[in-house]
Amino acid sequence: MNYLELGFNRDITKSLTSSEEDSINPELMDFLLGDGSIGGNKITAGSIVADRISLGTRGFIQSIDYTAVDEDTASWDAGHIYTEDGTDITTASGNTGNITATTYLYYDSTKGSTLQKSLTHADAVGDDKLLLAIITEGDTGGQVGIQIFSGEGTLITPGNIITGVLTATTQLGSGGSGHIKLDGPNKRIIVNDGSNDRILIGYQVGGF
Amino acid sequence: MNQPVFTIEDHSGGMNRFVQPFLLAPNEQIETINMVATEFGGLALRKAINPSVYHRINDDKIGAGRTVHSAELLTKYNGDQFIVSVLDNGVVNYAKVGNSISDPSLTLSGSFTDSCMFLDTMFLVSLYDTTRSFNGTDFSTSTNVTGAPKGKFVEQYKAKVYIANCNVSGTSYPNRIVYSDLPSEDTIAWDNGNNYVDVERDDGDKIMGMKKFGERLVIFKEYSMYRYDESSVYKVVGAPGTVSHRSIESIDQALIYLAHDGIRVYDGGKSHLKSRAIQPYIDAISDHGKYYSFSWVDGSTYNIFVGDLTNQDYDIDIKDAVISYDIYTHEFRTYSFRNDDVTYPFFDSISVSNVSTDLTTTSTSTTTSTTSTSTSTTSTTTTMSSSTSTSTTTTSSSTTTTSTSTTSTSTTTTSTSTTTTSTTTTTTSTTTSTTLPYVTYDSKKHFIAGYLGLYNLNNGYNERDSANESITYSGEILYPHVYPTNPETINTFDRANIYLSRAGNIKAKYRIDENEWIDINTQVTGKDNVVSLKFNTKRGRGIQFWIETMSGAEPPVIRRLAIFLKPEGQQ
């Protein structure tokens, strides 16, 4: 009996038995021994969970309060970003300063809690980044527009309202019922002084 | 009743020092030195290196005694081949195969460490000298290499030139590969700031070589290896890199190379250790032998020069050793260049595939007169076939070299030899009639570079010229200890027959049950192709043979060993 008859080859190594070969995950071997890639059809549906993917591709929700300061400045309070894998990211307060063009506000995990801003949209996306808001310049004397992603309180500048959009009952201003109510379906505008309706344009049954 | 006979007819298993003797395959040997399988199953003495001046680049032109540190080969579209050599003093010379040496008056700080072919040009790199391109005439620092980094390794891959282990503007990047732009009208440009890839930089390792392999560029570090596809670098899992870029060869559908742990084969997916059978020989390679190892491929056989092999634990002592591995039969052999009339060190090898059948050679003759006795020897001129050659005239401080122009139209051979003894007291020195030797080539195409020049491998004994015929070297076969019946049976060993391909001289020793070696005969001569050996000590369980065959005209192939014995019974 020599070593060849014992099942060893001329390299003096032994081939795996069929059962041993079966125990090896072929997809994993393809991945390891191939070019580091694996076909999508090799991935079990639903098997890639949130903590296996990069931050930039995870779903999230934010609880950051934004304020339109004036026509070229937005500010925000300290807040949180919650990603779908359960991560709680604390963010710091800040402001844009005077913007000169549409500004992209984003979180970058490599830069810490301070939110980042950029005039280049490509800067705001990436594996380590979450786009939080897009801030647009307002008219002189007006306020910036703030489009918030996965959060509350989007602020729209007049320039971003397209003709015909305000077709339903819309309330402008703060307070429980708003200061100006544009009521398209009933063909009227009502101005409120904070306590009572004072001006009616159009018709309302029973007046004020 | 016929006497039982135990035979060994197949020697194709090669060496095996890893498996314990009881488990060896019957066709394996413990050790062979200088033996090759010229026919399947048999073993014969290898042919020697030919140190003839006809087969080495002239060293007279640049000073005798110089060692060739590197040899690179340019093959042009029209079939012309050029050998570029760098000597140990940095002087570069080159020769068109079949023509005389040219001296480009170029001296390097070091030596070219690698070359590649692209755009009908050879790209030559060195970490200490400007990267150059060579078109068969000029060593340019501008044509296709303006702005190219210095580097240790160069390879052409997918119409770009890659330089690895770089020095860019004085900064070393041992893990960086800089690549050229794609050619534009057969011209390439370099952008070192943008066209580069770092291969796991700052990991304590460094790039040791590159080799194109199918659609990938394989990158060897010393302890890891990678493949590159023009966009990404992928690590080959579990694979060590190489110790010498000159050990990397492509055979069939695999790359074979020397790593710290042995000879490995990379098949595109995994790197397989192949040399486990000769692990004691791998362990016997010195660090110097590893880092300065170089290889060449002869058919399916990978040969690697590793310097001296010394391993006292296994009684291994082989000088100037080559390890040979056949990728198809998995057969390992060793050779020793120590007695080939050439002198270590060796540094590089090249394989010339073109051939010039028209050959004109002229050797030098020198006369030296001293206060005692002087001897003038040999002037030999050989003209073969139809050829025309013209040589140049040079003058040195103490010699005059004459010009010779030869045109011949028939095959003639003229040889003259004179010996003169003188007692004159003059102290003059004269060199007479010479043309520069030629780099030539016949069907034996492998050359190694080393002390005094390039030497033609496998062109020894029976093909050497008369002036260099007296080389003496031998081949050895150490068989495993065999038990012709079984280890439990005592035998009386009577005699052995060794069957040869032709009558020849061999030496043989034997020992029984691993006791002292016993010379059967100092030297025996085969008759009718069979050498018969009589045993003195006869009784034992097993027997082991050592056979040596000597150089000479056509040494025989050792084909069969037959042992005649009589079993006494189990004990």
In short:
The complex is a heterodimer of chains A (208) and B (571). By secondary structure, chain A is mainly beta.
How would you describe the overall organization of this protein?
The complex is a heterodimer of chains A (208) and B (571). Chain A is mainly β. Chain A has 3 domains: 47 residues, no CATH class; 106 residues, no CATH class; 33 residues, no CATH class. Chain A is built from 2 helices and 14 strands, in the order H-H-E-E-E-E-E-E-E-E-E-E-E-E-E-E. In chain A, strands 8-7-9-10 form a 4-stranded antiparallel sheet, with no helix packed on it. A 4-stranded antiparallel sheet of chain A has the order 11-12-13-14, with no helix packed on it. A 3-stranded antiparallel sheet of chain A has the order 1-4-5, with no helix packed on it. The longest helix of chain A is centred in the N-terminal third of the chain and has 8 residues. The N and C termini of chain A lie far apart (110 Å). Chain B is an all-beta fold and 571 residues long. Among the domains of chain B are: 138 residues, Jelly Rolls, CATH 2.60.120; 84 residues, no CATH class. Helix content of chain B is 2%, strand content 49%. Chain B has 2 helices and 50 strands. In chain B, the strands form 14 sheets. In chain B, strands 1, 5, 6, 44, 47, 48 and 50 form a 7-stranded antiparallel sheet that branches. Chain B has a 5-stranded antiparallel sheet with strand order 4-43-49-45-46, with no helix packed on it. Chain B has a 4-stranded antiparallel sheet with strand order 7-8-9-10, with no helix packed on it. The two termini of chain B are 24 Å apart. About 19% of the residues of chain B have low confidence. At the A-B interface, loops of A face loops of B.
Report the uncertain regions of chain B: 53-64, 354-444, 462-468
Poorly predicted segments of chain A: none
- Number of H- or I-type helical stretches of chain B: 2
Name of the level-1 CATH class of the domain at 5-44 and 473-570 in chain B: Mainly Beta
What is the straight-line distance between the termini of chain A? 110 Å
| Overall helicity of chain A | under 10%
Termini separation of chain B: 24 Å
